[in-house]
Write a structure and sequence with these properties.
Strand content: 35-45%
Strand order of the largest sheet: 24-29-21-22-23-28-27-26-25
Number of domains: 3
Shape: elongated
CATH topology of the largest domain: Immunoglobulin-like
CATH class of the largest domain: Mainly Beta
Number of helices: 3
Distance between the termini: 29 Å
CATH architecture of the largest domain: Sandwich
Structural class: mainly beta
Oligomer: single chain
Number of strands: 30
């Protein structure tokens, strides 16, 4: 399959290539028998020399090395990259997006082109460069080579992701990518994942362990817009000798803005939608008799919801037989952390709006809990103020617990990722000293 390149006139990922191939070209626009035997050099007879790397005939090229085209004094007008065989998917196999397309970036002089992304492992690659001399004559140069295949046990795969295509989410929703193998070259993997939003803004990735990458915007997403996530993982070297084998795309929608704020001391939840207060509920938080029964303060995000849920304290470290053990059947449960915190219906609690009586969850009246359950989207912010137990950044989706400055410091690239569709902060290719 082929991908025709686009040419933004700004240098983006220029770096070192492999040994090059120099071709002397004839003018492709000439009629039969009219080609200049000395090459497409015009009146002075000088041939057009084009260097393409990897060189023609090369085998087992690392798929994360760049393709470069250097046209010398000529102008590059198009570069086409065709990949077949190996891990390259059949047409349509990976969805409607062009899963094998390769874009590249020209320098300001328009005579050097560098591929933006990595190549599929085990692929047969044909690079066709079209150049134009000073007399306006077009010529083509071609390089054919093959890339190193991925081997069993060293194939990076996408294990899961949140959200998934087709989801409608809240304004705080992160992009969570879980891999099946540890990632050591985190910078290259970050740069292989491009997040594009209709309303361009800044965001960045942080890693939680070696297998989970999380993207969050600087502030909440602007509501009512489409988000696209292109995971161009094929050919990225995640760790030594471990290559991604497939590209993926996620498309989801950010819905209305709904932010709920719980004041622990006032025992209330206030719900705002698109900047206007629409509900106020009496609630009851954790009684704080011990830390595990203290509701966490901070910016929570709704994660999942159940119309009916059995809440067993054994799941949060209080086993059956312990004096504090409990097992409750609850309705309209909305998870806001991984430490057992939900909002849910609590018809047995007659102190709503008056005192904190729970094991750490936010108790609500049945009708209020039902409303919140029905109206919640995954990724809605729930801000809890006033307790002496802080939500940890890795407890559920507590990612907004880090300030933007701290979040950016934890990014492997150290730069903001702008979601305007103009690329990622850095290169996906092998380091130039390799």
């Amino acid at each position: 399959m082929k991908g025709s390149s686009v040419f933004p006139l700004a240098s983006r990922h220029l770096g070192a290539g492999l040994a090059t191939l120099t071709l002397v070209l004839t003018a492709a626009c000439s009629g039969a028998g009219d080609a200049d035997p000395a090459g497409a050099g015009g009146d002075d007879g000088e041939p057009v020399a084009v260097d393409i790397s990897p060189e023609d005939g090369a085998e087992d090229i690392k798929p994360n090395l760049p393709i470069t085209v250097d046209a010398g004094d000529a102008t590059i007008t198009n570069v086409d990259v065709e990949q077949t065989g190996g891990e390259v998917p059949d047409e349509g196999e990976q969805g409607d997006e062009d899963a094998t397309g390769m874009t590249g970036t020209l320098n300001e002089e328009e005579n050097v082109w560098l591929s933006d992304w990595t190549l599929f492992p085990g692929a047969d690659v044909t690079v066709t460069a079209t150049v134009q001399n000073e007399n306006g004559e077009d010529s083509e140069a071609v390089s054919k080579f093959s890339t190193l295949p991925a081997t069993d046990g060293q194939r990076l795969e996408l294990e899961s992701n949140f959200p998934t295509s087709g989801d409608t989410v809240g304004v705080g929703m992160p992009v969570i990518v879980n891999f099946d193998l540890p990632v050591q070259n985190k910078k290259q993997v970050e740069n292989a994942i491009e997040v594009t939003s209709e309303e361009g803004m800044e965001g960045a990735f942080n890693w939680f362990g070696d297998q989970m990458a999380v993207f969050r915007p600087k502030d909440y997403w602007e509501p009512n817009q489409e988000i696209t996530v292109d995971l161009r993982l094929a050919g990225v070297e995640a760790s030594e000798g471990v290559y991604g084998t497939r590209n993926h795309q996620m498309n989801f929608e950010v819905g209305r803005e709904m932010i709920s704020t719980i004041e622990d001391s006032e025992h209330t939840m206030v719900v705002e939608r698109d900047g206007e207060e629409i509900k106020e509920f009496p609630i009851s938080n954790g009684d704080a008799s011990k830390e595990v029964y203290t509701t966490t303060s901070g910016v929570h995000l709704t994660m999942e919801k159940y119309d009916h849920l059995v809440m067993d304290s054994a799941t949060v470290g209080i086993p059956k037989g312990h004096p504090d053990y409990y097992k409750l059947d609850v309705d309209y449960a909305v998870r806001i952390s991984n430490s057992g915190e939900f909002t849910h219906s609590a018809p047995w609690n007659n102190r709503l709006g008056e005192s904190n009586e729970s094991h750490g969850c936010t108790n609500m009246a049945p009708s209020d809990a039902k409303w919140f359950y029905e109206e919640s989207l995954m990724g809605d912010p729930v801000i809890i103020n006033g307790t002496d137990r802080e939500l940890e950044v890795d407890n559920g989706w507590g990612f907004f617990q880090r300030s933007w400055e701290e979040w950016l410091e934890h990014s492997e690239t150290g730069e903001a990722h702008k979601t305007d569709g103009k690329g990622t902060p850095g290169s996906v290719h092998a380091e130039t000293d390799e």
